[in-house]
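INFO batch 0412 | record 1 of 1 | parsing
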Amino acid sequence: MLTTIIAIYTIFVLITIYTSVMQIGYVNQAKRGKAVLLSDNDFIKAGNYSVAKEKMSIATTFIDYVMFIFWIGTGVKFLQDNIFFENEAFLNIAVVMGFLIINSVVSLPFSYYEKFVLDEKFGFNKSTKAQWIKDTFISFAMTLIFGSLVVWGIYMIISSLTLWWLWSFIFIFCVIVLINMLYPTFRAMFFDKLTPLQNEELDNEIKNLMDKTGFVSSGVFVSDASKRDARLNAYFGGFGKTKRVVLFDTLIEKLTTKELLAVLGHELGHFAHGDIYKNIALMGGMLFAMFGIFGNLPDSLYMELGVDKSPYAVMILLLLLMPVLGFLMMPIMGAVSRHNEYEADKTGSELGGSGGAVELANALKKLVNENKSFPLSHPLYIFFHYTHPPVLERLKELGIDIDDSSKSALGASCQADI
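INFO prediction complete | emitting tokens
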């Protein structure tokens, strides 16, 4: 059984690296051709950034594989043999959190490199090292506190209930919903400063737009995201009365009022179609499958690992193998998501009136330009990684003319965050 699991994970890693290699080769060739959506210089720069990101992705995938072999080989047993608590609950929390802490420490150099080498080189990073250390410490502390509570909850379920995997799934699913509800609040408390939108005219325009779809929000807020990053973005967070509309200050600075309303119209399209709940349902299905599989693994597997079939061993195995199932489900989730994006574009353009499609198209082009997103990708890479349709296809669906030199790239991808 252990040999089979290692083989499955190895195949997953090889496919992941292969798609990245194909993407690198595709982008390196494409960036030497005619520029699409970007100026010649920005097209090359975006291509170089895309290649650099993929090279880093290959490195992180390899390190993840090394860590997987370590944990499967001796790591879990090492934690079991070297962490001592008389209280079983504390023991389980300590072992699982030890696993998470070690993985977090291993990933820190990559996080630092991405922020202060890669993003710095291409002009995205606006954060200081002090800010990064502070953010990292806060994230670490929150993981330690809330992660321990979640581990304790799963431990209690496994220790007390026969169908523990089913109840653990329900518990984790509820935690995910709760996180979605509280995300805007926690982000505002610890990371971004959110202030109510001061532009009364824009605020009224946004509220009128929300009224058209029945979207009830606790307010429209501006995030000071520019202190960390130069990219443009916006998000709707929370559920029920906790819902907030959050605009990055970079988005307000770069988009016109009509373009900004088109972007929000797109997001409201997701709300009108219930896409948030569809995504949660898809995530729930994936979690159910994960817990169903890992809840019924044979005892012999734990014997091969040299560890007890304890709650902490079950949780660590789940965390180790979760990326594999997530990767396998990504094409399905991506296909559903791409369909939802087209429908949201349609709704957003309709909410904008006669010129709505043009304004949304202009906003998409600006997002590509400002975020230096390379507008072409290998089809295999799109299949496994992208949740948004190719921007060129989105423009075509919006009725925007595309010159002949771009039509050959319609099977490629550029992922904007809206």
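INFO post-check: Residues 2-193+271-407 form one domain.
INFO record closed
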